[in-house]
Amino acid sequence: MKATIMYGAGDVRVETVPDPIISEPTDAIVRVVRACVCGSDLHPYHSMPASEKGTPMGHELIGVVEEIGSAVTTLQRGDFVVAPFAYQDNTCAICRDGFQTSCPHGGFYGTPEVGGLQAEFARIPQADGSLVVVPGVDESSDLLPSLLSLSDVYLTGHHAAHMGRVSAGTTVTVIGDGAVGLSAVLASRRLGAERIILMGRHTARTDLGREFGATDVVAERGDEGIAAVLELTGGEGSHVVLEAVGHLPAYEQSYGIVRPGGVISRVGVPQYEEAPVGFGSLFGKNVTLTGGPAPVRAYLEAAIREVLDGEIDPGRVFDRTVGLDDIPAAYAAMDAREALKVMVAF
Amino acid sequence: MKATIMYGAGDVRVETVPDPIISEPTDAIVRVVRACVCGSDLHPYHSMPASEKGTPMGHELIGVVEEIGSAVTTLQRGDFVVAPFAYQDNTCAICRDGFQTSCPHGGFYGTPEVGGLQAEFARIPQADGSLVVVPGVDESSDLLPSLLSLSDVYLTGHHAAHMGRVSAGTTVTVIGDGAVGLSAVLASRRLGAERIILMGRHTARTDLGREFGATDVVAERGDEGIAAVLELTGGEGSHVVLEAVGHLPAYEQSYGIVRPGGVISRVGVPQYEEAPVGFGSLFGKNVTLTGGPAPVRAYLEAAIREVLDGEIDPGRVFDRTVGLDDIPAAYAAMDAREALKVMVAF
């Protein structure tokens, strides 16, 4: 089959590799119908050291179950499924807490053993815990983009809002007008936020943000951006800040605009390890810092229902579709901000 | 009057200074009945640069209202009161949120204008918002230590537990066997924690911790301490970690023992500004970091009622009482860990 391998920064190739096989009785093999490129794929696209071996890429898919291991009980060949971007057993104590991305029997795609999902076929470990069947949908559905968005991007935005305790009456500020940031806007609206301030400077994106529910857009960054949000909030700051970027300046912006006692919820994968947390940043004003890799599995059934019922249309973040051979160009287009998020059709 | 002034690290003096006066119509003057030395006073005791001017010390008191400004409406001369360690109007939007330590019209004691509370008399700004009357109590009450503890230490421990969302069924680990840590144990028990692991190595203190509700004591620190807590929690870690120290190693210990999706709540004033918050510490396992200066005022009426009703006895953290002239020795005794927390009687 064909699969996507990154050999170093800027070096993405589509190559022929062996088809995945059932390695464990709990595995399933899925034929990929749609995959996509994630904002987080751009981090190694900038920084991965060159290697001869390469790393299999991709962690989002919708597809059709082709084969199941002998221990799989909830799936059958032909089922149309969404795969969360991480796999998990979904039965252990940590999964039952709703933090499936920390499942001790789970893991992430993109290793030599498990492979990536920007490929024609995918091996899904812990298939019973990881794949969720979408009833009544096939490859011709108009809902494919929105269903694909549930694999990661929309439910990552939802996780940000959920961990930020967004509710009716909340003022939310979303930092970042990428696909996750826009998803966080949509999720905040669904959770009843009274006011949603979107910080971003790409008009095409912030326009979609307004359609998703943003009530204000702030194009300034840094100190100017902080001043603008404080002015919009009567000097008090935002109850909740959803940080959907992952770079340190966005974090610093977050504690500048959060209200005393408020919450900063991060879902942009931090490209830093150390950051201010002391009296002058978080502690002095009792700010709560939360967030992490979204336990998509925890939210998936409810979100599938919302998509099937037409209540949300998170697939609008996809503004380009390519075939598998054009994945390298998809990375380049997202990196150049020519495309917001690229879907791959097989 | 006599008041306590710190002139540099290790240099605490009791001196005669002018009596405080009503400067604003919202002020009150309180005659101090009991004050005390705080663990946070030990930070400048270690690090304050020497100065000729000095800094007035103390931020905890119970006492009797001597005089009120013309705008004060809820107090009268002779009222027996508790003063939270910060002053606030208790009417603004931030105070109504329950984060009075960030009141834009409030502040902290120990400035040249406001003075400190380790003194015979104290000026209390925003007196209506800051002083809470204790009905039916006078200077002869056996409850004075517990009432004094509500000025800071017990309600700081309570704030840690409250922000950590301690509730029935929670496993809590408290780092630090100082007076705040022991208070956090007692508050966690009040909030219904199922299991309370106290990390500390001073047996006299951890024994009081057990009486306050600790179910387990871990004397090890660092990696050994982390391993011990993980073993006690079946490898999963603690739902909530209450960090009552303020030094970086305690913070690092916190993210080592917190369960995925759990909460670290800090009330030890951080003696650092930068700390790990990225994928390898907080983000990767969806840890929430919270806490800050306790908005004691938010919790004060309920806690006074609990003390008057005999439901809690947080004053047991005081293990020594001195007169005003012996305050320098009180600092030294707490610094040498000869005393847990020293009360000052006037």
TrEMBL record, chains A, B:
Give the Gene Ontology MF terms in alphabetical order. Answer: oxidoreductase activity; zinc ion binding
Taxonomically, which superkingdom?
Answer: Bacteria
Q: Keyword annotations for this protein?
A: Metal-binding, Oxidoreductase, Zinc
Query: Which cofactor names does the annotation list?
Result: Zn(2+)
SUPFAM superfamilies in the record, alphabetically?
A: GroES-like, NAD(P)-binding Rossmann-fold domains
Q: Does the keyword Iron-sulfur apply?
A: no
- Give the signal peptide, or none: none
The answer, when asked if Oxidoreductase is one of the entry's keywords, is: yes
Q: Where is the Alcohol dehydrogenase-like N-terminal domain?
A: 25-128
Start and end of every Alcohol dehydrogenase-like C-terminal domain?
179-292
Q: Which Pfam families match?
A: ADH_N, ADH_zinc_N
Family statement drawn from the similarity comment of this UniProt entry: Belongs to the zinc-containing alcohol dehydrogenase family.
> Mind telling me what this protein is named?
Alcohol dehydrogenase catalytic domain-containing protein
Q: Which organism is it from?
A: Herbiconiux oxytropis
